[in-house]
Design brief:
The relative contact order is 0.12. The strands form two sheets. The chain has a 16-stranded antiparallel barrel. A two-stranded antiparallel sheet has the order 1-2. The chain is built from three helices and 18 strands. It has 378 residues and is mostly beta strands. It has one domain: Porin (Beta Barrel).
Length: 378
């Protein structure tokens, strides 16, 4: 049988054009290096493939405050040198979770104080054993007091401004760089025990003097003068639904020289039942100085009741004693009102109004103060 002739071989295809290069790497190789190149504008779009869930949200705050008398120098944290002022913050939260084991979150704050961008916290959490033991590292919110546990206490508080001792005894929005162990044990619905213990760089006064305002000692991200670390912790108990109380403490060297120590203790309590909300707190600080000790004390009590879905009035009494300076002490009564334009919506916001009247440590009238805060969460 005759054999069919073999078909002529096809002419060889021209070689593909060489891939363009960026630097010394071809694009094909860059596409394989996913952390460096996604082709989609952000590494976020490829995170779900690895079991990572990312998120972002934020809070916007606008505060107006005015007072009838100028405060003495030691109370100038709120409105330095002015009888009326606007202030504002924009908080941006960015975070991610890896298979319910590793968590990371960052909070950036754009402030109206010179347009600064501050890092409130930037932390990594590792779940070691369920919710019982979690290790946190980085810059974290210091677990002391009843309000500093919230990423933004101004968003959840019932009045436009926090109690005065949160500026002068316990710093507000207080972040520390260090390591923390925390956990939570629950034995029923709304019944739990929480704990947190930490070691951190600690507070540091920014000059060589002693006895300065505690609220100005934050953001000591590197111990350049004294290597001693601060330590502290908090225990909180929720024995029944809606009721909680906790104790917390802190101790560390706060001066750049002289090795002087600052210690704080706090007890807070909270109760919520239906439309009724009650909060109370006592905080004290023992601040060593060259010739003795400053003992500072703060306390507040607040009650609010949501009369309808949109309206919630509140009343607060708070006291600030700064130790040895009666002119800078304050007893203040505040009445306030919250308005929720969209109470059923999440995210949501509120408009808060407050009027306060104060006396100093010599029982001399220290003036009136009006404040208004608009907060929106998204």
């Amino acid at each position: 049988m005759p054999v069919a002739a073999a078909a002529p071989a096809a002419p060889p295809s021209p070689p593909p054009p060489a891939a363009p290069e960026i630097g010394s790497l071809p694009i094909a190789q860059l596409l394989d290096l996913e952390p460096n190149w996604t082709g989609l504008g952000s590494f976020k779009f490829r995170l779900p493939k690895y079991g990572i869930a990312a998120y972002t949200h934020g809070i916007t705050e606008l505060l107006f405050a005015a007072q009838s008398q100028e405060d003495p120098a030691r109370l100038h944290i709120d409105l330095p040198g002015t009888p009326a002022s606007f202030a504002g913050n924009f908080d941006l939260f960015v975070g991610a979770e890896l298979r319910n084991v590793l968590f990371t979150e960052l909070e950036l704050i754009l402030t109206s104080d010179g347009g600064r961008v501050d890092v409130n916290f930037a932390q990594i959490d590792l779940r070691v054993f369920r919710d019982f033991l979690i290790v946190r590292g980085g810059k974290f919110l210091v677990p002391i007091g009843g309000l500093n546990l919230y990423p933004d206490p101004f968003f959840v508080f019932k009045l436009p401004e926090l109690p005065q001792f949160y500026n002068h005894i316990i710093p507000s929005r207080w972040g520390e760089l260090g390591v923390q162990l925390y956990g939570r044990y629950s034995w029923g619905e709304s019944r739990a025990l929480s704990y947190a213990f930490y070691v951190a760089n600690g507070l540091e006064q920014k000059d060589s003097l002693a006895g300065g305002d505690i609220g100005l000692m934050k953001d000591n991200l590197r111990d350049s003068y004294d290597a001693d670390k601060a330590f502290g912790g908090q225990i909180q108990v929720e024995p029944i639904r809606g009721f909680s109380f906790g104790v917390s403490g802190y101790s560390g060297i706060y001066t750049q020289t002289n090795h002087l120590r600052l210690s704080m203790a706090d007890f807070h309590i909270g109760f919520q039942h239906k439309n009724l909300n009650i909060r109370g707190e006592v905080a004290t600080a023992f601040q060593e100085i060259e010739n003795g000790m400053l003992n500072k004390l703060g306390v507040y009590g607040l009650i609010s009741y949501r009369v309808i879905r949109y309206i919630e009035p509140a009343v607060m009494i708070d006291w600030l004693g700064q130790g040895g300076d009666p002119v800078a002490d304050r007893l203040t009564g505040t009445v306030g009102l919250q308005y929720y334009p969209y109470p059923q919506k999440v995210p949501s916001g509120a408009l808060r109004l407050g009027y306060g009247f104060s006396w100093d440590g010599n029982w001399s009238f220290a003036g009136h103060r009006f404040s208004a805060l608009l907060v929106v969460g998204f």
